[in-house]
Design a protein that fits this description.
mainly alpha, globular, single chain, five-stranded mixed sheet
Length: 411
Amino acid sequence: MNLRQVFVSVLMFGVAGLLLFMYLQVWIEEQHTESGEKLQQQIINQDFTLPTLGMPRGAEWSKSTVPGLSKHEMAILGSRHWRGKADPFGVVATSLVSKLSDQQRMSESPLNWLRGVYLPPALHPLNKTLVKDGKWKDVDSTQEKRRSFLHDFCKKYNSRKKLQTHLLHMVSRVYVEDRHKVLYCEVPKAGCSNWKRVLMVLNGLATSAHNISHDDVHYGKHLRKLDSYDLNGIYTRLNTYTKTIFVRDPMERLVSAFRDKFEHPNSYYHPVFGKAIIKKYRHDANEEALKTGSGVRFKEFIQYLLDSHRPVGMDIHWEQVSKLCYPCLINYDFIGKFETLEEDANYFLRLVGAPAELKFPKFKDRHSSDERTSAEVVRQYLKELSKEERQLIYNFYYLDYLMFNYTSPTV
């Protein structure tokens, strides 16, 4: 055998080996994918039964199964699950990354390192050392009941599921105020504009919440979000800062969002959402409506919300709180409600040592002449919908109703 034949033989052997390696790699990946998809599908296909509207809360809690999140949230994301050592706030971050072996780090993408989760988080006493008088006794009692209720719900819910999400996504709606060590998760249509004004005052960016315009609040980029910090910064703040969330009755929040974005001129929501909604759900739409996206009807908006093939994506103003703030993954120290916004907010400001003269603003951020979205206003809008549509909306916000102990609508 001459040198040329030897060279050709070696070359052919090398090519054959490479092809075999590529085949085996594809086969292994397919096996992992199939096993992950089968497990994911088993979870997704669980028979979760939703209660009907008006069902007493006791009956809801007596259900043998608790409804899940979306398919994306319920999915087992990949074939490995990292479970860190439990900390007081139920969040995996720097310590989790440091525990991965070199082989694990090489075999998993960086975002996969941030998956969790060990649940449920522990319920810790609220620090009340800065509250000097007894006028907040009733508010404090209500606060402890809310915290306990949410903790018990998450404990029950998490016993059936290991919720997972990427850390950076989980904290992407959380605003940071370093001076008073506050983390605030933004829930739109639940007083968030005035809350961001208060955070700017606390941070020394303004002297009064009343002098801050709507555009400065939402477009000025004066406040940092938690996902803008490095992993150590995120982890430290989650463990040491006072974390708060303010929520609202889901139906009221939904109707409030619709009124704000679609019943008033809006240079973003009409062309982006309105045009797509009218095009898909209004069969007799005229040219003007299709061109501008103005005049979306509430029933059309609900059709969009409930459509599994929406013509345009979701928006934070009507996204579920469970997906905005992850209340069963982040252990919030303070749970405020829009229905008792002023007293809850002012009590929280005392807890974190805010200046005595700082009070939560009472004014309405926009459309001040409009009637506030109340339970009665909601009833008028729901009359436009069928019973089935009302039930489906309730199903959509089911976790929010349960987590924060809101009564299901009876319409």
